[in-house]
Amino acid sequence: MVAKLIDEDPEQAYAYSKVALRLASRVAAVREAAGFAAYANQKFSEALAEFRAARRMTGNIELWPVMADCERGLGRPEKALDMAGAPEVAKLDKAGQVEMRLVAAGARRDMDQLDAAIVTLQSPELASNSVQPWTARLRYAYADALLAAGREDEAREWFAKAVESDRDGSTDASDRLAELDGVEFVDAFDETEADEAPVAEVGPKASASDEDEPWVEDAEDVEEFYDEDDEEFEPEEKDKG
Question: 124, exposed or middle or buried, with CB in 10 Å at 0-12, 13-18, 19+?
Fold first, then answer.
């Protein structure tokens, strides 16, 4: 029930997760679901505690990227970067490594390190013309970082590539591309303006070779890895908006 409601009604999902915790707090799947429900409601301190509990129960490393993103949500991008440089990252599958790269780039941006964020996102997965579940989000994040750095032409190119790969509409890349092109969309049912709506163009596909080596944040850019189990559940800090 929690998983079904997270996207449609995150508040209701969170309420269900609290009930589930009261009934089965020793079940790892319940702790993980509670973590995602709290995460969806930006209750990052609570989410981090639940993810840590689930990981202790199972030893599963898959939650590592979202745990790092919780650190970002709590205003601790340095800790997120610590986690990006930890040995656990090499144990993640390809999707997990891409997710970790996205989190690390976000942490760099939190610290106003735009150039470092751009470099962090540059990877074989970004350049590949193979479309994977993570491709649209990776290209979108790269385009957004380029735009924030004032590199508008490059940003437009990568928003176009994100549009090409966004088969399920997981990003608003088409809207961002249209905005850069000066295109204004109107309501199709507005008879007075329907004939004036131009059509946005989509740029060319990316092309590059793929590589399979795992990515880990450069050791020079991160501090010594901390053991997440050293920190017990903390009173919830003010979450990032």
Answer: middle
How far is Cα 111 from Cα 70, in angstroms, rounded to an integer? 15
DSSP-based three-state secondary structure for 18:
helix
Cα–Cα dist 136/142, whole Å:
10
Q: Give the CA-trace dihedral at 61, 65, 71, 76, to 10 degrees.
A: 120
Strands (E) located in the chain: none
Amino acid at 66: V
Structure confidence by residue, pLDDT tens digits, 57-74:
999 999 999 999 999 999
User: Which residue type sits at 239?
Assistant: D
Query: In angstroms, how far is CA 48 from the centroid of its own chain?
Result: 15
Structure tokens at 110: 């939190």
Cα–Cα separations (whole angstroms), residue 32 to 17, 22, 39: 10, 14, 10
The residues near 70 (Cβ < 8 Å, ≥ 6 apart) are 39, 44, 45, 47, 48, 51
- For the stretch 77-95, pLDDT in tens is 999 999 999 999 999 999 9
Smallest Cα–Cα separation from 88: which of 117, 127, 51, 41?
51
What distances in angstroms separate CA 41 from CA 66, 120, 187, one per listed residue?
14, 27, 31
